[in-house]
Design goal:
- The protein is α+β, with helices and mostly antiparallel strands.
- It has 9 helices and 14 strands.
- A 6-stranded antiparallel beta sheet has the order 1-14-11-7-9-8, with helices on both faces.
- Strand 8 and strand 9 form a beta hairpin.
- About 3% of the residues have low confidence.
């Protein structure tokens, strides 16, 4: 700035050279290069000026050589003084540059010292924070260890409780199995039959029941409110009341049995029909088959045996699959399985109310129909049709179940059971798009098939 102010090229040259070296020492190479270019330009200007001076002096000396002979000695002395002054200037400039260099290096050293000092302070703070975090982690570790010990203790207690509950439920299952009809008794009473019984839990809210009263075969499938242990209690109550009611009558009547069963359930559960009261009960399909056939003479002189079936139901229907076509009435719903299967499905509707307290408490109504030997009778709970699964994760649906029953009716009863079991297991085996696992069983499943 001083050399620019006084327009002194020598000072400007020295200053630019010093700035170039200073910037290069700081790693500011672009600025160093710019200063060096300016330095070269100034240096060239000085050189040209000095060259012009020398030429002028030479010409003056040539023109005035003769005139200067007298003052030659004086000029020599002046030249020596001028050279001395130049050397002095160089020394002064060198001293100034040295001071500048020392100052720059001092500034750099000071900055490095400050940075190192700040880094040490930050390091001390980090070390302090790490120590605090280590103490906190240690405290958390002790807390976690304590909680883990508590969880382990609670886990052991839960395992003990779970084992006790599981043992109790399995014992309840044995009791429920004892209440249900034995296989030997079923074989004696029902002869050609199958029962697909798949509880959702260990014990079931579904139950099946059968007995012989004089020349009448009585069998039923019921679906109690709930499943698991509560449903199992209801099923045992239902079996007990059915045995008690049937033991007190001479001629069985399905509507009478269901009306009596409803009264016993309401009385046993102390149901009053008040608002908010739990409406426990059951849905049931009850069939009474007169084992004494009625002979009917047909036109060609042959005698055909017809059997009479009485049915009453609470929400659950009776499905009959026949080979012969019957006239359609208000109480039958025929459905043809297909050209390759001449069977006809007849659905006997149930009353739309459960066994238990309900808004509508009408009397149950008997439905009667004639069947032939070889016909299949099916009663079932809603667990099969309400099971979620399949490729779209939907319910199996009642319509599909009835179509399946029509298609398998001509087969042996054991094979029918295997087909039903395999079908529902494959239906559940599809992957649930929400859980990414196979579908779980949603309710107890019971299907009973009886061939006359």
């Amino acid at each position: 700035e001083i050399s620019n102010a006084i327009n002194n090229l020598q000072y400007r040259k020295i200053a630019l050279e010093g700035l170039s070296w200073a910037c290069a020492g700081q790693g500011r190479f672009k600025e160093a290069y710019n200063y060096y270019v300016q330095f070269k330009n100034v240096n060239d200007s000085i050189y040209n000026i000095e060259k012009n001076k020398q030429i002028t002096l030479a010409e003056a000396q040539y023109q005035n050589e003769k005139k200067q002979l007298l003052i030659k000695n004086q000029e020599s002395e002046l030249a020596m003084q001028s050279e001395k002054m130049k050397k002095q200037k160089i020394l002064i400039y060198s001293f100034i540059v040295g001071i500048l260099v020392i100052l720059i290096f001092s500034i750099l050293l000071y900055r490095q010292f400050r940075q190192k000092k700040m880094a040490n302070i930050m390091l001390e703070r980090k070390n302090h924070m790490i120590q605090l975090q280590n103490k906190e982690i240690s405290a958390q570790k002790d807390e976690i260890q304590s909680q883990r010990d508590l969880v382990t203790q609670q886990k052991n207690q839960i395992e003990i409780i779970h084992k006790e509950l599981t043992d109790s439920i399995h014992y309840a299952c044995r009791i429920q199995q004892a209440v249900l009809p034995e296989d030997v008794l079923l074989q004696e009473i029902l002869a050609s039959h199958f029962i697909l019984f798949k509880p959702r839990d260990v014990v079931s809210g579904d139950f099946y029941w059968c007995t012989i009263l004089k020349n009448y075969l009585i069998f039923a499938v019921a679906d109690c409110t709930g499943h698991g242990v509560p449903g199992a209690f209801m099923s045992m109550i239902g079996v007990t009341f059915l045995n008690e009611i049937v033991s007190k009558i001479d001629i069985p009547d399905p509507a009478f049995i269901l009306n009596a069963l409803r009264q016993n359930i309401i009385r046993a559960l102390h149901q009053q029909g008040t608002v908010g009261e739990q409406k426990d009960g059951m849905d049931i399909a009850l069939v009474i088959l007169d084992l004494v056939p009625e002979p009917i003479w047909i036109e060609n002189g042959e005698c055909k045996e017809i059997f009479h079936v009485k049915f009453a139901g609470a929400n659950n229907p009776l499905v009959i699959v026949k080979k012969a076509t019957l006239p359609v009435s208000q109480e039958t719903n025929p459905a043809i399985a297909g050209e390759n299967n001449p069977c006809q499905m007849i659905e006997i509707a149930a009353n739309s109310m459960p066994i238990g307290i309900y808004d509508k408490m009408d009397e149950f109504v008997n439905r009667e129909i004639q069947i032939n030997k070889g016909d299949m009778l099916y009663v079932f709970s809603d667990g099969f049709s309400d099971q979620f699964g399949g490729p779209k994760g939907k319910k199996f649906m009642s319509k599909k179940l009835k179509g399946l029953l029509v298609s398998i009716a001509p087969k042996p009863v054991d094979e029918q059971k295997e087909i039903l079991d395999k079908t529902i297991e494959e239906w559940k085996a599809h992957i649930n798009s929400y859980t990414h696992e196979p579908f779980e069983q949603t309710d107890d499943i019971t299907v009973m098939g009886v061939r006359l």
